[in-house]
Design a protein that fits this description.
This protein is mainly α. The chain has one domain (5-81): Alpha Horseshoe (Serine Threonine Protein Phosphatase 5, Tetratricopeptide repeat), CATH 1.25.40.10. The chain is 70% helix and 0% strand. The chain is built from five helices and no strands. Helix 1 runs antiparallel to helix 2 (23-34), helix 3 packs antiparallel against helix 4 (55-68) and helix 4 (55-68) packs antiparallel against helix 5. The longest helix has 14 residues, at 55-68. The radius of gyration is 13 Å and the shape is globular.
Amino acid sequence: MEASRATYITRFQGYTRKGPDGKGSAIYEDGIKELKSDINLRLSLAKIYETLKISQRAKEEYEKVLALDPTNTYAQKKVKELGGKQ
């Protein structure tokens, strides 16, 4: 049975109340395994990676967003900021 995006967001919010420690990224990674084309989960994961100063992984997630939606201007901007192709 496929979980919903809300399941992962709820779990993530529980971890963020305790502070950013990297556990949130694992929750979103699990979510993406089940919901591969969910752009919002990918954007959230990319933002977490940026917060954790894992720029390469953030850029990769933004690029995956662009593979799903080439017109996503936010992802285009972030890839450019992180030094990648658009």
